[in-house]
Amino acid sequence: MTNEKITQGLMDELTAKAKASPRLRMNLDLRNSDQDGSQRMLNAIEPGSPLPIHRHKHTSETVVCLRGRLVWEYYDELERICIETIELSPNGQVVALNIPAGQWHTVRALESGSVILEMKEGAYEPIGEEDILR
Predict the structure, then answer these.
(1) Sheet with strand 70-75: strands edge to edge
(2) What pLDDT, in 10s, does the model give residues 27-77?
(3) How much is the pTM?
(4) Considering only CA atoms, which of 133, 108, 130 is closest in space to residue 58?
(5) How many whole angstroms separate alpha carbon 51 and alpha carbon 47?
(6) Superfamily (CATH) of domain 8-122
(7) What ranges do the domains of the chain cover?
(8) Contact, 83 vs 49, CB < 8 A?
(9) What pLDDT band is residue 3 in, cutting at 50, 70 and 90?
(10) Nearest CA to 46 among 107, 112, 117, 90?
């Protein structure tokens, strides 16, 4: 995606793909090549998208809400309960979060058309079963 502009039209296209997906979300890789060791993506998330409570053990995650409204939920591992909720929106009190490595979390879209910019350091690592809170 070298030198690509992130436009409303691009987010509209990504949102249409998310709405058509059984997962109700769709991402767009923003890295310059497969050799790029970072993780940068747009993620369109629709209300009702099933996102498990999970963690990223080895990397923090930075998210910026570009459009819509979402709520981030942080969970306690021992009690397995939500300990904090944070609403993100481009014109709201909170527009971006830095989620520490190892923090259990999930996100829910509150509005159709919600899009976030997600960034993590290091190469992509799939979430293992031990990284999903059940």
Answers:
(1) 82-88, 70-75, 104-109
(2) 998 887 777 778 899 999 999 999 999 999 989 999 999 999 999 999 998
(3) 0.91
(4) 130
(5) 11
(6) Jelly Rolls (2.60.120.10)
(7) 8-122
(8) no
(9) low
(10) 112
